[in-house]
């Protein structure tokens, strides 16, 4: 396992969480994400998106609609000169009890094998504790970036969290700076 990776959640981390995003025209990348991912990519990280998409299992949108959203996201990253190394998604309903829905680690395990990832040199960035749980179970260093509109409420419930992140970032740029400083690359 030679490669290091940034595993990153999609909704609420890369883009504003629209609650079952079903249309690529509604995809809105957060400021700083494209630039931050570009910096991490230049530092040698594989960039792998891992996202729960139970809207498929719930019948709210189709897999084709999801792929159109991912195509839009890919195009937006390309505007920053970034090509994502992988996009992995769980289409299942939470009641399906699959092993790929975060905080389970099935998608991580698949990506680790396919991209020859050393989890000890890798990070998970997400906006929810289930992202942190999946990252912890996988062995990565974890960063929580609560969405701005729910940040205070979310952080007020820290005592109830099942998993504690290694770092709580103000935004994506803050997460990137923390990673680079942690590795002595700042």
Topology:
Blueprint: E1 4-8, H1 33-42, E2 45-52, H2 54-57, H3 63-78, E3 86-90, H4 106-115, E4 123-126, H5 129-138, E5 141-144, H6 151-155, E6 167-168, H7 172-182
Parallel strand pairs: 1-2, 1-4, 2-3, 4-5, 5-6
Helix pairs in contact: 1-7
Overall pLDDT confidence:
95
CATH topology: Rossmann fold
- The CATH superfamily is HAD superfamily/HAD-like
Q: For the record, what CATH class applies?
A: Alpha Beta
Low-confidence stretches: none
Tally of structural domains: 1
What's the architecture in CATH terms? 3-Layer(aba) Sandwich
Largest sheet: 6 strands, parallel
Fraction of residues in helix: 25-40%
Tally of helical runs: 7
Radius of gyration over C-alpha positions, nearest whole angstrom? 15 Å
How far apart, in Å, are the first and last alpha carbons?
A: 25 Å
Order of helices and strands: EHEHHEHEHEHEH
Structural features, described:
The chain is 35% helix and 15% strand. The chain has helices at residues 33-42, 54-57, 63-78, 106-115, 129-138, 151-155, 172-182, and strands at residues 4-8, 45-52, 86-90, 123-126, 141-144, 167-168. Strands 3-2-1-4-5-6 form a six-stranded parallel β-sheet, with helices on both faces. The model has no long low-confidence stretch (mean pLDDT 95).
Task: Please sum up the structure shown.
This protein is an alpha/beta fold.
């Amino acid at each position: 396992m030679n490669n290091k990776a940034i595993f990153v959640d999609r909704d609420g981390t890369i883009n504003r969480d629209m609650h079952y995003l079903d249309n690529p025209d509604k995809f809105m990348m957060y400021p700083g994400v494209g630039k931050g991912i570009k910096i991490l990519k230049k530092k040698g990280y594989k960039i792998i998106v891992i996202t729960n998409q139970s809207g498929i299992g719930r019948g709210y949108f189709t897999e084709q609609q999801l792929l159109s959203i991912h195509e839009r996201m890919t195009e937006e990253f390309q505007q920053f000169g970034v090509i994502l190394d992988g996009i992995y998604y769980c289409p299942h309903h939470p009641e399906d009890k699959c092993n790929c829905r975060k905080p389970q680690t099935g998608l991580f395990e698949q990506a680790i094998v396919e991209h020859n990832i050393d989890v000890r040199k890798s990070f998970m960035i997400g906006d929810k504790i289930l992202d942190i749980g999946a990252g912890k179970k996988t062995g990565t260093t974890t960063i929580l970036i609560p969405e701005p509109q729910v940040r205070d409420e979310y952080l007020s419930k820290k005592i109830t969290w099942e998993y504690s992140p290694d770092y709580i970032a103000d935004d994506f740029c803050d997460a990137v700076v923390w990673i680079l400083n942690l590795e002595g690359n700042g």
